[in-house]
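Page 42, continued from yesterday. The earlier attempt failed because a stray header line got pasted into the input along with the sequence. Redoing it now with the clean sequence only.
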Amino acid sequence: LEATQWKLSSMCQLLGVLSVLSVQTSVMSLGVLSTYRMMIVIRPHSTDTTRFRAIAACSLISLCTWVISGCLALTPLMPVLHDYFVDEYHYTDNPILLDGSRSAHIEFLKNYHNFTEPGTPSWKTLIEMTKEIWPKAKAYPRPMSYYSKHGVCLPKLFTTTSDLNWSYPFLL
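This time it went through. Structure tokens are written below.
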């Protein structure tokens, strides 16, 4: 119970965002520095590398790497992409639906609600149908999402093609 509450907390989400932000910024900064060094080696006496211009360009590029990294780190928390990044929903005082995964929800609804919706239903649909069957069902305010898969709040980097969000770690 306490582990689930920790994984669903906003502090866990913040730690996940900070870990992705720091890794992405480090990798992009190394790429930018390597490119800049290569340019200096290729054209050592170029007039474009004046001190002021170089400092301004480096500052702008550094700011861009932080902004891009921040966007990549915050993407899994966007409500628009909720169905893509959420893996599980858990309920308080739940004796029936112990596994909060999407497949467990669908199986539960097939047994108790004659659920025959084609394709993969949205989380909103699954939760509403679960509440119709079991009115006491109260979902936790936050779902198990991209940063909640592990107790240390790291993102799920090793995915399989059966995961809905398998392409996002590949992008990173």
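Notes: The chain has a mean pLDDT of 76.
Reminder to self: strip header lines before submitting.
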